[in-house]
Amino acid sequence: MAGLARHRLAPVLAMTVLVLGAPLLFQSSYHYRVGALVLVFAIAACGLNLLMGFAGQVSLGHAGFLGIGAYAVAIGPAQFGLPSWICLLGGAAISGVVALAVGRPILRLRGHYLAVATLGLGILVNIVLSNEASVTGGPDGMNVARLDLLGWRIRDAASWYWISSFTFLLGAALGSNLIDGPTGRALRAIHDSEVAARTLGVDVAAKKLAVFAISAIYASVAGSYLALINGHVTPDVSNFLYSIELVAMVVLGGMGSVGGPLAGAAILVLLPQVLTILHDYEQMVLGLVIMGVMIFLRHGVVPSIAAAVARSRS
Amino acid sequence: MAEFIQFAFSGLTVGAVYAVVAVGFTLIYNASDVVNFAQGEFVMLGGMTTVFLATAGVPLPAAAILAILLAVAVGVVLHRAAIDLARDASAVTLIMITIGASIFLRGAAQVVFDKRFHDLPPIFGTEPLRIAGATIQPQSLVVIFGAAAIVLGLSLFIDRALFGKAVTATATNRLAARLVGINTRRIVGFSFAMSAGIGALAGILVTPITLTSYDAGTLLALKGFAAAMLGGMGHAPGAVVGGLVLGLIESFSAGYVSSKYKDAVAFLVILAVLFAMPQGLLGRAKVERV
Amino acid sequence: MRSLTWIVMATAAAIVVQPAAIRNANAEIKIGAVLSVTGPASFLGDPEKRTLEIYVDAINAKGGVNGEKLKLIVYDDGGDANNARTFATRLVEDDKIVAMVGGTSTGSTLAMMPLFEEAKIPFISLAGAVQIVEPVRTWVFKTPHTDRMACEKIMIDLKQRNLTTIALISGTDAFGKSMRDQCVAVAPKAGITIAQEETYGPRDSDMTPQLTNIKNKAGVQAVINPGFGQGPAIVTRNYRQLGITFPLYQSHGVASKQFIDLAGPAAEGVRLPAAALLVGDKLPDDDPQKAVVLDYARTYQQKTGEPVSTFGGHAYDGLMILVDAMRRANSANPAMVRDQIEKTRGYVGTGGIVNMTANDHMGLGLTAFRMLEIKNGDWTLVAGSGS
Asked: Which of B77, B83, B96 is the best substitution to test chain A (most A C-beta atoms within 10 A)?
């Protein structure tokens, strides 16, 4: 039993080592900031992975939840004088409720129809955030009050790196737990064949809805962190391009693998920083990299590396 | 009353643009179950290439034909070098490849072309037609008829030509098609080439209305995809209907409700339609094999 | 599992530890620029980048500043404020710049401002909104005219033509929204009533519904279109298509001759406030800006093959103001340079004549805007509109 438990949490432990050890290489607060951003996006990707990788449902509008979380910590303190951490929890709650409310009809759709419905949802959030300028500051965005934890004002990148690490690892561990428990088995059954799962007594609708809400909450927390790190937020955080980026992180990293979200987030956050030396050719190379990874490592980076390692061992 | 007609004309103009982009999605989807996110870039390539060739001195009709050929070539390369290589991968992987391709094509366009906005002359001049107290640009009618012609041409091809029937066979059941000797890889490659050509043609027709730039493809693909789903994915006439309906909703919302929220209303309507009719307006219910 | 961990760690390490360790020990003045070279604002960011590159090279060819060469480090934020902030952090921490000319959009400028305030590095922004310099922040300046000035200039012209009831049709992008807000704010003081408001998306292709509503609104005597990019061209075309006869005013976001090409014959009679850069050859010979403006336009067109754009002009002004300040301070020390930027007096640029003070970190007056009208497919200066 102990061996099994070790095996189950191994990816999370590996990521813990990685995340705790990376700062040894950091030389400036710029590196800490990039690291924090990787982890923040990994949180959102982790939630989306539960939805896409395990429950097999696609969401092209997940950045909408990033937006809800981000603006919750922006508007809450500004309009209502609430402390930021309460607004963060409030944003997560709102996202969860929205997901539950909208999820029931949306999740009855299949495949590309589901994709369009989630796309529409994300776009609606984006439009509201952009238009309701009196509350949200409009397209130019608004400033976000810094997080105040027990009198300690958190503004430097290093602190945020540690906060994001802890949150991400916690989220990954919880997600891992979910996957290996009865819910995870039910999700995999749904992924393979909804009809078969239903005949076995799995409450398909309820399970899908639950995962949708959970993934929305992950994204909301990530959005809140993003706003607090930057001290500023714009409606762009909820736009279509961010939604696509989240999906790309999940797929590139490896859909359905625990380490996938972190790898995917790392690739898509670090690559533009590295490729910036290419100036005008950056977008072309980025596109080629995405295509290349998908063609040659078609299950994603982490599963392909794991398979290669397993093969070299046998 | 005149304003109702004006809103309707505006909706048909914008809707025709969406329709002609949406048709391109359905071809590839039919043959391979892949939603080609690079479809918008084919539309962009049609317009931008024509503009740049024309500026370089090539006569407009020749520039247009060359642009379409270039797009077809890009479609073929995209299929060969990317989709075909990964042909046994899951649908999500293939879609991600097309997303990568769209980023690549956009990046290439900004290097090869430029970052400014460009225009093509409308085929029948700029004087608007006055009908029943409202005005419409002649080019809008060109796009509407163009979309209809493309769909008509496609359905004739699908029904009459042997190759067209092979496409239908592949769309229905790929394994069965292979078993009767159809080279499904070539069918899929052909559908990419065809979609690229249709997309480029669409781009050339709509540029006099929408203007074009290296990143014009993104929003067009988004709306075109939504229109295709609204009409019922995989069904070319459905794509046209979806496009026109989407355009009309946007125009009427802008005119009667609020111009700020016209896009929101349009997407709410799409959501409502999909909740009520999960296969789209004209789509057929898919039979799921257990 | 262990070897997998090592593989992934090593890869991550290889990516993170970049040649940031390559520290250039030569005497070099590092100037940073975070611009939106790709993305929805690339229409602005691209001329800005090219201008900075052309002129940094030109300055270096003539020996640099205070005997040292300038090194320009440009990062592309893709129009995203989060990326802008990341690159700004990189510029300050890793590249160790001494000054920054950049921030194509208001959103990215607002996201980056606190960083430069904290790092005490002068930041000359290229964005339009008035809240960049109001309230004044010690380390932040800007070169473009504010959107409020554009509204005021237009409204002065409206009053002169006895047009007091107007309609607004604005783009929902940041530029359009910000200018629309300013117009609404200054209208009462200028004695202008806004009777109808409509908006459109920046990539929309038909605005006839919105314009129809404006046309049908009783009492509207003129229309202002705050927006940038391709929207204004389409609005102008639709305006003519619907046969609307009352005057149309565009914004300074239109910024280039290309607007006239795209709008076609519909552009006839359209007025807009613009920098002298657009009408260099039409300025009287004794106009102080004529020489600067013609020289920049010629150089830009020659080196890029594209028509000149006022956005590029703002970047030119930003760079020159910075370089002049460095020369006056005889140093590249950020604090000393900042003090000298604030003391910029009588700088003749493409945007106007700049006189900064401790309370005015932009330095342009209303006369820096010229009211232009499009006649026969070309710009003309409206008589009696500023110096």
From this structure: B96
C-alpha dihedral, B19 to B24 to B30 to B33, nearest 10°: -110
- pLDDT score for C3: 52
Domain A2-313 class, CATH top level: mainly alpha
Q: Are residues C223 and C306 in the same domain?
A: no
Interface residue A188 vs chain C (CB under 8 A): no
Put simply, whether B202 touches C (Cβ < 8 Å) is: no
Query: Nearest by CB to A21, which of C3, C9, C76?
Result: C9
Residue C376 counted as domain residue: no
Q: Is residue B289 pLDDT above 50, yes or no?
A: no
Q: What is the pLDDT of residues A37-95, one digit of tens each?
A: 999 999 999 999 999 988 888 899 999 999 999 999 999 999 998 998 999 999 999 99
Amino acid C22: pLDDT: 45
| pLDDT tens digits, one per residue of B107-118 | 999 999 999 999
Q: Quick one: C300 and C336 in the same domain?
A: yes
Residue C251 is assigned to a structural domain of this protein: yes
Total-model pTM: 0.91
Q: Give domain status of residue C1, yes or no.
A: no
Neighbors of chain A with 3 or more C-beta pairs under 8 Å:
B, C
Clarify whether residues C202 and C92 are in a common domain: no
Tokens of C358: 């401790």
Chain C neighbors (3+ CB pairs < 8 Å): A, B
Domain extent, residue C252, equals 147-274
- Contacts B254 to C, Cβ<8 Å: 198, 200, 209-210
CATH of the domain at C335: 3.40.50.2300
Task: Determine whether the interchain pair C206/B13 forms a contact, defined as Cβ–Cβ distance below 8 Å.
Answer: yes
Domain-wise residue ranges, chain A? 2-313
By mean pLDDT, which of A16-25, B27-36, C194-203, C247-256 is the weakest? B27-36
Please name the residue of chain C whose CA is at the shortest distance from the CA of residue A274. Answer: C15
Residues of A in contact with C37 (CB under 8 A): 279-280
Whether C19 maps to a domain, the answer reads no
In angstroms, the separation between the Cα of residue C132 and the nearest Cα of chain B is 26
Give pLDDT tens digits for A214-265: 999 999 999 999 999 999 999 999 999 999 999 999 999 998 888 999 999 9
